[in-house]
Write a structure and sequence with these properties.
2 copies of one chain form a homodimer.
Chain A (H helix, E strand, L loop, with lengths): L5 H14 L5 E2 H7 L4 H17 L3 E6 L5 E6 L3 H15 L5 E2 L3 E2 L8 H14 L7 E5 L4 H11 L3 E4 L10 E7 L6 E7 L8 E9 L3 H12 L3 E11 L13 E10 L4 E6 L6
Parallel strand pairs in A: 6-7, 6-10, 10-11, 11-12
Antiparallel strand pairs in A: 1-3, 2-3, 4-5, 8-9, 12-13
Helix pairs in contact in A: 2-3, 5-6
């Protein structure tokens, strides 16, 4: 890269940090990249750090010393998150979203890139300080949320399949009981998709009793991997809490009631905002 | 937002533009956001434009006049793309990726956030000038690519299901013949997922004869929607070209041969690089 003026360097460094979240970049690497003194780089980083933190873009962690450097962690302030989730709740309460069987239509929202980026940032904030090697979800609707979170955290995603596809090689399958339908179902994961001892963040779009998430946790045990956290976009609160199979999870929104006659759902911010 | 110094404003504007690709932002909005004169904003944008274009981050289109503003289009130069795809080809040629049945294991690569962001940017570049309302893929392995592309283009994603899930409401289903296996399969899309007349970009991970993509095109016709383009990550070139069901598509890599005995695959850059 050719030597840049400070103003241009600030633009380039900003985009570089944003494109490499949760990655330690040494001051030396930056100094070489921009052919500048480390002292100038440090001054630039101080400016970027102030803007990122004041405007709620994320944290810039600087590590001093020979092995030092800088790491950008995308973070969203809780007030900003709550404003966005309140809008989500309003949208989810639109009457035409209540489907036969008492399901809530939210597939369209899980396809909106801006909302996904926001939600990914919320999960990245909620789990920013936990050591995580991998994000796991089960097909299909949680996949976009898993990738949005992964993009913020710079962590790969594995997708548990509801069948055993030949194109994945040998796989581990387990049976689990879907909490809502009480039916026995199968989920499977390619043997090579997950290393032993991995610390795994589970992300899903919807959780009622938690049977599907519990299935993923059981599957992790088969791989000698551990659960680093569970994040769900919407939880259903319309069940007794003792029915719930797991207690330690983060939800961004909560479906508290659904009236099939009036086609009215009630959705409120989730437990992420009550702690 | 409080009034910022120029250096801070450059950082903030850079992150704002990157977070809002393919979105027209008026100079007035920027001037108000930063409590600065439009002339200062224009100077800042000129600096950002120069860096973005010189460093291959994307294009900054400025529209003059009262309704004027600026639009950031993430773009990746072809040389950069080719370097990345050459590495992808090398990785895909690792012998342990050839699975029984002659399949190529690439699920792990489709879970890497950095590679996905790069590939998304390549598709966003390839289709930057076409009017597109929606990106479509079929579950499961193309989903991450579809979202990575959508994030660059600021376009929603719809996912075609291989079954008809009750949580989606009424759906349109079609039968199609998978070109490779010659089996009749079903795919379906929720009625409300796609508006009539939508211009749709189809993204998928792998294409051999093109049966699955052709199925998606047939499904689009059921919705009176049109195909704006087809992008596949890897195409299989190990078939006669007259067997291929469609000719107008962009591939980033091409599987030219697979030897089940030696477990050796040959993968080369796709047709995107030969035009």
């Amino acid at each position: 890269m050719k030597k840049l003026k400070r103003s241009s360097r600030l633009v380039e460094m900003t985009q570089y940090l944003l494109a490499h979240p949760h990655t330690l970049i040494s001051l030396t690497a930056f100094a070489e990249r921009y052919q500048s003194a480390k002292s100038s780089i440090s001054e630039d980083l101080a400016i970027i750090k102030e803007v990122f933190e004041e405007e709620g873009i994320g944290q810039l962690h600087t590590l001093a010393g020979a092995a030092g450097g800088v790491k950008f962690k995308p973070m969203m302030p809780k007030e900003t998150s709550l404003d966005i989730i309140k809008q989500v709740c309003e949208t989810l309460q639109q009457p035409d979203r209540v489907l036969p069987g008492g399901y809530l239509y939210m597939t369209d929202m899980l396809g909106q890139p801006e909302l996904l980026a926001d939600v990914g940032k919320m999960f990245a904030t909620a789990f920013a300080d936990r050591p995580i090697d991998l994000i796991m979800t089960v097909e299909t609707k949680g996949i976009s949320l898993a990738y949005a979170t992964a993009a913020c955290m710079n962590i790969p995603v594995v997708i548990v399949r509801r069948d055993n596809k030949v194109t994945e090689g040998s796989a581990v399958s387990i049976n689990y009981v879907s909490g809502s339908t009480k039916r026995i179902q199968t989920m499977s994961l390619a043997r090579r998709a997950l290393k032993e001892q991995s610390r795994v963040l589970i992300i899903d779009d919807f959780m009622k009793v938690g049977g599907t998430v519990q299935g993923m946790i059981d599957l992790l045990h088969e791989f000698n991997a551990t659960v680093a956290g569970v994040g769900v976009f919407v939880e259903s609160g319309a069940i007794e809490s003792e029915e719930r199979l797991l207690q330690d999870y983060v939800s961004l929104a909560k479906l508290t009631a659904i009236d099939l006659k009036t086609k009215q759902a009630e959705v409120v911010p989730g437990n992420y905002f009550s702690t």
